[in-house]
Automatic annotation (TrEMBL):
UniProt-annotated stretches for the region Disordered: 296-316
PROSITE patterns: HTH_LYSR
Keyword Transcription regulation on entry: yes
Protein's UniProt name: LysR family transcriptional regulator
Basic and acidic residues bias (residue ranges): 297-306
Superkingdom assignment: Bacteria
Location of the HTH lysR-type domain: 2-59
Organismal lineage: Bacteria, Bacillati, Actinomycetota, Actinomycetes, Kitasatosporales
Length: 316
C-alpha cells in the first residue's frame, strides 16, 4: 500500500525540483525527505528517482505516480469537505492568505462577516506575495488565498489548485504634478519613458508587470526605487522621486501632489484553494464573504472556477 504522506512528498518534488526545496516547504529535514522517498520506492517496487550527484529527477514511473498523487490528494480534500459538511456548524482555524491592498479593501470586511456569522470559526490571516501562495496552499499552510495576475503577467498553471475570479481593477500611471511633458509625444506609459521609475521588488508580479508593460510601450524603465508598499510608492511619487504603475486598490486616498492617468491595463484578483475543497463549508463561506466585500466600483467577472493545472475550466 502506498503511503499518502510519501505521495505528497513525491508530488512536491515534481513541482519544486529539489529535495531541499521540498524540505523547506513542508518543514522537514532534507534527510527525512530522502528517507521517505526511498521508502516510497520500496513500496512501489521500482525506481522513482534518478540521482546524479546532488541532483534528483523523477523517472518516468515517478512522473506517472506524481500525476496519480494529484488525483489522490484531490479525493482526500473532497472527503474532508464532505465530512465537514455533515458536522453542525463551522469551527476551528481557517488560514487565509492575502496581499496588502486586498487586506484593506476586502479581507477585513470579509473577516468581520465570517466571525459574526460563524462565531466558532477562527479566521487566521497571513499576508503573502501571490508568488508564494501555491506552495503554501499545497503544503496546508493556507486554506484559501487571494492571488492576482496582470495583463502582461498571467498566473502560472499550478497543479492541485482551483481558482475563482473575484474582481478586476484598472491600472494607473502615478506621477507628480504637473506630470510628464504632454508635448513630448507618446501616450499612456510612454509619458514616463524619460523619467525615473518606482517599482516593486524583483521577483514579485508587480515588478514584472511594470517592466513588461514599459517594454511593450517601447522602452525599458530607469528604476530608481524598489518598494512593495503602494502607500510608500505614492509618497515617493509625491516627493518627485519618479513615476509608478499602480492598480486601483493601491491608489486609494493618494497624497497631495500625485496625479493619476488611467491606462488600458488591468489586474485581476482570484480566490485560490486546493482542488477538491470547493464544497468545504468554511471555504464556501469565505469565498461568499469575500465576494460580498468587493468594492462596488470594481468589476466582478461572471466566470466559473478553473483548474490551475492547465486543465479545462470546471465548475466545482
Amino acid at each position: 500500500m502506498l503511503d499518502v504522506r510519501r505521495l505528497r512528498l513525491l508530488r512536491e518534488l515534481s513541482l519544486r525540483g529539489t529535495i531541499a526545496a521540498v524540505a523547506e516547504a513542508l518543514a522537514f529535514t532534507p534527510s527525512a525527505v530522502s528517507q521517505q522517498l526511498s521508502a516510497l520506492e520500496r513500496e512501489a517496487g521500482l525506481p522513482l528517482l534518478e540521482r546524479t550527484g546532488r541532483r534528483v529527477s523523477l523517472t518516468p514511473a515517478g512522473q506517472n505516480l506524481a500525476r496519480h498523487a494529484d488525483a489522490v490528494l484531490e479525493r482526500l480534500e473532497q472527503a474532508a469537505a464532505e465530512l465537514a459538511d455533515t458536522r453542525q456548524g463551522m469551527a476551528g482555524p481557517l488560514r487565509i492568505g492575502t496581499f496588502p491592498a486586498a487586506t484593506r479593501a476586502m479581507v477585513l470586511g470579509a473577516l468581520t462577516s465570517l466571525v459574526h456569522q460563524h462565531p466558532d470559526l477562527e479566521p487566521m490571516m497571513l499576508e503573502i506575495d501571490p508568488v508564494g501562495v501555491a506552495g503554501a496552499l499545497r503544503a496546508g499552510d493556507l486554506d484559501v488565498a487571494l492571488i492576482h495576475e496582470y495583463d502582461f503577467v498571467p498566473a502560472p498553471d499550478e497543479p492541485g489548485l482551483v481558482a475563482e475570479p473575484l474582481c478586476t481593477e484598472p491600472m494607473y500611471l502615478a506621477f507628480g504634478s504637473p506630470g510628464p511633458d504632454e508635448g513630448a509625444g507618446g501616450s499612456g506609459l510612454a509619458h514616463g519613458k524619460d523619467l525615473p521609475w518606482i517599482t516593486a521588488t524583483p521577483g514579485t508580479l508587480c515588478h514584472a508587470m511594470t517592466l513588461r508593460a514599459c517594454q511593450a510601450a517601447g522602452f525599458t524603465p530607469r528604476v530608481r526605487h524598489q518598494v512593495d508598499d503602494f502607500a510608500t510608492v505614492l509618497a515617493l511619487v509625491a516627493a518627485g522621486q519618479g513615476v509608478a504603475l499602480v492598480p486601483q486598490l493601491g491608489v486609494v486616498d493618494p497624497p497631495p501632489g500625485v496625479a493619476l492617468t488611467r491606462l488600458p491595463l488591468h489586474r485581476r484578483t482570484e480566490v485560490a484553494y486546493r482542488a477538491g475543497a470547493a464544497r468545504h463549508p468554511a471555504v464556501t463561506a469565505t469565498i461568499a464573504a469575500l465576494r460580498a466585500a468587493v468594492p462596488e466600483d470594481l468589476a466582478r467577472p461572471d466566470e466559473p472556477p478553473r483548474q490551475r493545472g492547465g486543465g479545462p475550466r470546471v465548475v466545482v
